Amino acid sequence: MRVPHGPPSTLGPVAVCLALVAACYSGSPAGDSGDELTAASASSSGDPPTTSVGESSGGSAGDDTGDPVKPFMPGPPVLPRLTQRQYLNSIEALLGPGLPVPLLEPDTNPYLFFNIGAASTTLSEPGVQQYEEAADLFTGIVFADAPRREALVGCLPAAPGDACVADFIARFGRRAYRRPLSVDEQARWLGMASELSDGDAWQGLRHAVAGMLQSPHFLYRVELGEPDPIDPTRLRYTSHEMASRLSFLLWNSTPDDALLDAADAGDLLSEVGLLAETDRLLADPRSRTAIRDFFAQFLDLGRLDGITRDPTRYPQFSPTMIESMRTEVRLLVEDLVYRQQGDIRSMFSTRNTFVNSELAALYGVTAEGATPVTFVPVELPADGPRAGLLTLGAFLTMNAHETENAPTSRGKYVRTRVLCQDVPPPPPDVDLKLDPEEAEGKTLRERLEQHRADPSCAGCHSFVDPPGFLFEHFNPIGAWQDLDNGYPIDSSGDLDGKPLADARGLADLLADDKRVGRCIVTQLYRHAIGRRDVASEWPALDEVADDFGAAGHRFTELLQILVISDLFRTVAEEEIDP
Amino acid sequence: MTPRKPLARRTFLRGALAGGALVSLGVPLLDAMLPTRPARADAPKVLPIFGIFYWANGMPWHAGHGETQGQGGYPDLWTPAATGPAYAPSPLLTPLAAHQVSVVTGLEPKTVIPDVPGGQGDGHMRGWHVAMTGAPMRSEGFDQPSHTMTVLQPTLDQVVATNEQFYGKTPPRFRSLQVGVSEARFHDFGHWNAISYTGPDAPIAPVMSTAQLHGLLFNVPGDLVSLGRRARLLDAVLDDAESLRVRLGATDRQRLEAHLDSLSEIQRRLQLTSGTCDMVPPVPEESGDLLVKTEIMGQILAVALQCDLTRVFSFMLTSPATTHVFANLGVANDMHKTCHDGAWEQVRAITDYQMQAFARLLDKLAVKDAMDMSLLDRALVFGTSEYGEGYQHSDREMAVIFAGKAGGKLIPNVHVREPEGNFSKAHVTMLRAIGIDTPSFGFNGGETSDQFSELLA
């Protein structure tokens, strides 16, 4: 089964305009104090939004204030609905492959991640109807096919409500709800299987399955915790909830029987048991897709969807170019995570990449064996302009307009995506104007410099633009350009006061930047739990980041570190009105 | 139930669609073609229709939007020169002139602008939220990378669709429909691709595919026994949710309860033994051309309204801050950037094009039936955009168009002007026109009990 692709759209270049607006702000005296950028303070959900320029979302709380480090306290529970992919993966796990892909509520990705959208948005009425129709569609197909339904059910029901029916409902319910059914639930679906059978036990089972597939216990991840025997001030996730958390993190799908068996045995309440299952799940190909999906969201690759370029202006930009760029990023990340098992931060500095023939031409490199559909590994030249994701097609193209670069957007990506720093939106009365008359005969950089000359804009633009200017030699499709608007390009810039000549200089700097590792921890955590981190979790996130660093910033090690941390295993008690 | 399909009508429609010649079908959707709905013909009262037509990025800027906007010396092509009945349309309102729309000019948001996080006064935010909900945006979550486009209050279409005075005890098959045309969106984020919300973080994604809209409305199984079983099954699903509901905190409980409310609505729909349409149009072609797609979507919507499958819709031509590239108009960059670049003439051309699209939709609703009554006669279609203009994001001089007669309650072809007027006066006027008691409307500084009496019969 495939997740339906979102409708094509023209969005990549566009986040830029507001990005430019968003960057133009001088709300804080700390605005351009680059040397304080590693200091982080509050900008997390639930806190008063006191974010100012340069603060990092979810950094090491307290480091810069001299306050004693507060102990870790778990954050609140969430109730994520399954994302499209999680739903479809779960359906395939429950009913088998080959079912059609129905229309489903679109995912949303606030704070980059579908899991956060799934935990914060309310399902629309059309979305509820689509679940109802999907359940009818799937069960109709499966139960109309005699060999298929017998394989699913595993026994032949002779009469509505017989032992075969009851046994199947218990087994299917455990898979669907990711825990054993309660007595009431078992009775409910057994009752439906009889009432709606019309004398045909198969028909009854079909309806019971369709009902369970519409139950909130299936459609939402119910992970609310139980009293923690070692700390009465918090809850821990149950063994079955841990199975669900592990499985959706590592497979983006529902637990299999082996994982549920481990949960039944209470194995997932111990580090040893968690690590054993983590190793097993990571060894399964499903984990590759799940990790790929995480990086696609972390790197914001959804913004590549629907990007267009005028072929008369950019003859190299073929209809397949966007997919080529996306594939390159996927191959590069997978190579780092699985084959090299290297420092994941090097995705922003490595000269190793994977190109097909059109990317080879775009970068001006030779790539033996590359064809339009064959990607081959290449080492980018040591004396060339490119190294790392920030010098490759995907980043450069999705952070540009149709006809010109967007240095502010590129710089903002470096700040917010790579370093996890926040750039707040502008004040309500900001003047957004770049005077077009004055722009005549100038490079884009020179026009943007006006922002920094204007005191009301200088704060944010001084923060965002200097790293963005480093990419000015790459045009809106990521090809090299010598001139901009007919004038020589100045690609020098800086990051936090460190002068840099170009994007290669930035790549060298990021290769060993602790903030990059800390940022990946924050983003993985948000993805894993379906909400933003809260301040009381930062001490534990700092610890995870330290352990991640000690493990050579290897990504699969980070997953192992995270799943056994209290961050992933405990939760605050929710206040419930009776 | 097997829907009856009057052959002559279908054949005609298929021919018209195949030829792409949809501008004027010539043959009205006659009541005679709807044999199972005698009730409506007998009804003394006309059931009103409420719709929203939304387009992105306002209008070309002029001095009325602010000092900076006035520096180019560009004329105001939106505001008609004269006020009152039978006004002469301005250049940008000319495409709508045939439908005798009423227009209110000079309106702007009056809501408070919270200081933190900054940026909430921006037109995309303040203007859009006031036009669609009468309230400020929700501050929480705004300071995130994609600027969560989320509401505090339901959008006006949902206010109407959930109002008991509007629908009474027997709502039609769908309380509302959401339709979209351009798929371009500003952020890769669902919130930015929807204009209808039932509440905070509760967007209703518009149907973007003509085939999908057709299927939703007309592809209803005819086996009532099977539908009855599916409806009965939802009782068990609702029961099954209870053990979860009582364990949740307030926010998640609300999310779940909204889901369960929708389940009840789906259940009602499954139990309906009537209310499907007897006059199923052929499955339409998809089109990437905004005007053609507007006509196709508009035609399906017209049949749905004629069959009383719904009485409320939102029609999103382009999504807020759209990045649609109007290459057909010779515009190289996406629209949002084109506005910021100060390309006034291109923004004028795009706005004119968007008004042509509005007119194409109204064309579909304006076809007279056997009683000499059109859907548009029954309807109030509220045309609006997110701010006054996109060059500086000013939310002054916002666009407000009322198309239709709301069953005689709304006076067409009038221009009312109130410089610096409260946008929610338009909301009050609309809600009263469609028969909803509205002592006041607007929130957080935008409250008003005033109406534009010149527009109400």
User: Oligomerization state of this entry?
Assistant: heterodimer
Strand share of the residues of chain A?
Answer: under 5%
CATH C-level label of the largest domain in chain B: Alpha Beta
Poorly predicted runs of chain B = 1-44
Task: Indicate the percent of residues in helices of chain B.
Answer: 25-40%
What kind of sheet is the major sheet of chain A? 3 strands, antiparallel
When the domains of chain B are counted, the total is 2
Biggest interface and residues each: A-B, 94 and 89 residues
User: What's the number of structural domains of chain A?
Assistant: 2
Overall pLDDT confidence of chain B? 88
Distance between the termini of chain B: 42 Å
Computed Rg of chain A: 26 Å
- Report the principal-axis shape of chain A: globular
Low-confidence stretches of chain A: 1-66
Number of discrete helical segments of chain A = 25
Any guess at the CATH architecture of the largest domain in chain B? Answer: 3-Layer(aba) Sandwich
The total strand number of chain B stands at 10
Shape of chain B: globular
Strand content of chain B: 5-15%
Taking all Cα atoms into account, the compactness measure Rg of chain B is 22 Å
User: Strands of the biggest beta sheet of chain B: in what spatial order?
Assistant: 2-10-3-9-8-1-7-4
Question: Could you describe the 3D structure shown?
Answer:
The complex is a heterodimer of chains A (578) and B (457). Chain A is 47% helix and 4% strand. Chain A has 578 residues and is mostly helical. Chain A folds into 2 domains: 20-77 and 243-264 and 286-569, no CATH class; 84-109 and 119-219, no CATH class. Chain A has a 3-stranded antiparallel β-sheet. In chain A, strands 3-4 form a two-stranded antiparallel sheet. In chain A, helix 17 packs across helix 20 (455-469). The longest helix of chain A is centred in the N-terminal third of the chain and has 20 residues, at 125-144. Chain A starts with 14 loop residues before the first helix and ends in a 7-residue tail after the last strand. The longest helix of chain B has 22 residues, at 224-245. In chain B, the strands form 2 sheets. Chain B has an 8-stranded mixed β-sheet. In chain B, strands 5-6 form a two-stranded antiparallel sheet. Chain B has helices at 7-19, 38-42, 67-70, 123-133, 156-161, 164-167, 210-218, 224-245, 250-271, 290-306, 335-340, 344-365, 375-378, 424-433, and strands at residues 49-54, 84-85, 102-108, 177-180, 196-199, 202-204, 312-316, 379-384, 400-403, 414-422. Chain B has 14 helices and 10 strands. In chain B, a hairpin with a 2-residue loop joins strand 5 (196-199) and strand 6 (202-204).
